[in-house]
TrEMBL record, chains A, B, C, D:
Gene name linked to the record: glsA
Top-tier EC class: hydrolase
The organism of origin for this protein: Leeuwenhoekiella palythoae
Pfam families on file: Glutaminase
Subunit structure comment from the entry: Homotetramer.
One GO MF term: glutaminase activity
Keywords linked to the UniProt accession: Acetylation, Hydrolase
Classification via Gene3D superfamilies: DD-peptidase/beta-lactamase superfamily (3.40.710.10)
Protein name per its UniProtKB record: Glutaminase
InterPro entries, A to Z: Beta-lactam/transpept-like, Glutaminase
Length: 305, 305, 305, 305
């Protein structure tokens, strides 16, 4: 597969693309980003790398962190987590309380905010220094010790915590949150506020690839296959809130988006790929990012389907 | 891969399995089936076949027909369909009216009843003899001209039509059904009442596999890859009602279940597989069928993830 | 109380009223009415009558009929009805299916469409000639044998039956409808299509007043006090769909509206009053009718509160 | 009316009553009450008083306080309140977040928890010392300066604040709460934790009666008639959560219940009445209290309907 040529052809196809998306502003700090930024990094299972644009520029990974915290939690405690969070698509926006009330405090899946709060709560209960330990985990899987929290973003999120505070309090009422709500929110907002580049994200998500025996030396940090299979399944069914079906339909890869405009996706047998473009469509996913990935799986004729 | 050994080991693992499921009885005709029936047929892309139990015995395919009617509709009209039905998981039971009201008569996806009724309505508008033409399509893709409607099941469904009649009338109120409701229901119930064996189903669903050039002689009826990709994505995200996430999580294949106890699943690069066991779990999917497929993808270590 | 002076003062206050409402058009036949029509009839418990405008002109009573069919059903069968329909405000639009699905086919109250369909179903099971017998009941309580169905309105409703057909089929699925759905809808649409004047409506609703002993000769048809109390309570809590609270808050009387622009209200110790003005507010209630009744209870300083 | 004889006959009718209700335990402090306690106080507009049982024993008034805080808020600011809270029955449990999310942070009415939190927020913005000032208002209208907060109940509620904290944070996210959430909850829980007897409650609620000119000397604190009408209407349509219709249907009076087992009701022209019995039915209203009031309006043949 000539990935370089395919990436260049996508770039060419989209050079006059009219982006109708809007940069997220509900957290003021996020609204400061330059909306024309674009980056892409493709990390192949055989060790090859390809990139476009600002692939090394860091941005706020936001909800993409939910996959990393899930992977970390499943390292620490493999089974009990699934008593506290379900594995079904929600069909609702990422921050809805409606299902949570009907379903008695059990979030639909770990990739909506409520589910990620439960995962964070479990991490807090296991870790001595949750923020430090989580950051170290991310640095290790991304292979870059310079990765860090953007504390101004974390502080901005804390100032606008109310919807997430409502979710956490509702789950605490249903006894599905064990730790102090404000400490939990502080930990959760820090996870969202990690700044990473496309290159770092693609590297980090390579832990979910199915390395064959000869490639395993490359990836000692890879998640055990049975766990990776499940996390990949969850990304495919739940990674894009109430647009998960659309992403599966158009792109056909497990993936996860964040309101910072990043999307990471992967084909378990071939590659992990990260793309970044801040303007979001009305469902909260990077408009251009989805378009690029749709072209990528169409042109390569490779998807999981 | 020694599929024969894997199938035998699954059979051995499950020989004392205590099935807690219940045969569907809401259509009386379906309740007459022997609950201990079991069949499986594996149809590999290279032309090999493997089977267990009553793999040639026919049963009511029920909602499995929704995938076949979608494939047929997309042959006739590729684009307009997606204006009338969405591609998102519903997160609700298969016959719910709630989302349909909130979303103004646009069903969440073509694999819940409301969505399949819209697909059927579109087929009716295109076909001269809907029932005859649809049956011929199924016979052709399954390669067996003896396949037929079980008219006693269709009649039994018509006598208990009320929930589906409510769905159809609600969508007609929203102008998303064009044909007469009773004629539409008659057509829809006939689709559900097709009787097929595991062998025939596995053959029919091979149209969604990604045949390589050298295999294409085997499968002239294969769906174009871009369409197959989308139908497979829909099966993965929406094929098991509000248990779609669970099936993706445990099994990791696109698939579709029916209340007759059948499940068809497929790996686009490897095989299609059909399994039949009538007792259903509380979500309406074959309990043993899901278990068998979970063991199958675990033992083969092959899934789309 | 000088009712004549109060009515005239209301007429004077509202002579330049800018009506922002819209005449109902979802049934084409209803859309033909002159939107400037206005009538009012006040029927006092002591036998005095007062009126304004076109108080003798007949219009389609629509949902106002739901109170009369409930009263008639409670004459025939006092207790079993409440197993099939609840007595709670719905908080939802008049034709919603959402609660009906969640609450397993038991309508919230007899004044939303679903509830009135159950009441009609019960009447059908008791009456030899439902349409003739119901019409006779209305003629008797209104004291006017010339009252009749507007069959062109009934036919128009039958042509646009889909939403109500969805409600009826859903309840039939839950076994809360016993009769044939199309026959039931025909009966129900005829009830809605009765044409009556404000004078006739005020007279008919006088059966819910608390006549003292000396006045009872006037009203042999009065509903027994324990039944009247309950029907009045239902009108107050449920008579105006999801605007029932607003009507109670602003007007403070039991009442019932119809999409033909009519409103009937009553004070059990003093009077029944009917007002008619076709333009409806966005909740489907006569905008001017509500305004007139608000002024009436404010100026008289009499309400049930 | 021989009220004394009627009260005695009710007591006699119910002496062998099997109460199937359960004392509220979700706030541990409330669970300590003796479930067999019973008290009743009837306060007639003409100055007569009647009572049964422990009518002077104080209990936690809980949600009954919502009517008093609304009355106090409407003294301070008559109009703006209705931009922030609606006047419709909710049809949902008292602490539901579902409607609040759909309706963008505007509570359905001031007598569900969310609505009372908005009223409390408005009081906090107007009052220098919210807790002291509110308590003084209650003491004044009840005519008893010994009324006080039960601080152990308030502290117990604060320890189990999570559901109410979720409601408050969700509304703050929708910008319908202005004050600090924890300070607001502290004020709100204190209101709920006022301890009053049936006698004191009946006296306090006499401010909502329609005193005639000759009786006005008795009640200088009476709420202006136009305000009392609206508060009474709200009590009738919304005073018993999702059982408001049932109370209107069976009892036929404006009223308000609390999970401490108290119910206050009133007939604007005749009396206010308070009854106390701790065991609650499944909707959270005093089972015996509702029964007593149903018998009272049946035997007196007086209700607002």
């Amino acid at each position: 597969m000539n990935y370089q040529a395919i990436l260049e052809s996508i770039q060419s196809d989209l050079k006059d693309y009219k982006n109708t998306g809007k940069v997220a502003t509900y957290i003021p700090e996020l609204g400061k980003v330059d909306s024309s930024k674009f980056g892409l990094h493709l990390n192949c299972i055989n060790g090859n790398h390809y990139h476009l644009g600002a692939s090394q520029e860091r941005f706020s990974i936001q909800s993409i962190s939910k996959v990393l915290s899930l992977a970390f939690a499943l390292k620490l405690e493999r089974n009990k987590l699934w008593n506290r969070v379900d594995v079904e698509p929600s069909g609702d926006p990422f921050n809805s309380l409606v299902q949570l009330e009907y379903e008695k405090g059990i979030p639909r899946n770990p990739f909506i905010n409520a589910g990620a709060l439960v995962v964070s709560d479990m991490l807090m209960s296991h870790l001595k220094n949750p923020k430090e330990d989580f950051l170290q985990y991310v640095r290790d899987i991304a292979g870059d010790q310079s990765i860090d929290y953007d504390t101004s973003v974390a502080a901005s999120e804390m100032q606008h915590k109310y919807r997430n505070a409502a979710l956490a309090h509702l789950m605490k009422d249903f006894k599905n949150i064990n730790n102090d709500v404000d400490a939990l929110l502080d930990f959760y907002f820090h996870q969202c506020a990690i700044a990473m580049s496309c290159q770092q994200l693609a590297q980090a998500f390579s832990i979910f690839l199915n390395y064959s025996k000869q490639d395993q030396s490359q990836q000692a940090l890879a998640v055990p296959p049975m766990i990776a299979k499940r996390i990949n399944a969850l990304m495919l069914t739940c990674g894009f809130y109430d647009e998960s079906g659309e992403f599966a339909f158009r792109v056909g890869l497990p993936g996860k988006s964040g309101v910072g405009g990043g999307i990471v996706a992967l084909h378990p047998k071939h590659y992990s790929i990260a793309v970044w473009s801040p303007p979001l469509n009305e469902k909260g996913n990077s408009e251009l990012g989805m378009k690029v990935l749709e072209l990528f799986t169409s042109k390569t004729e490779i998807s999981v389907f």
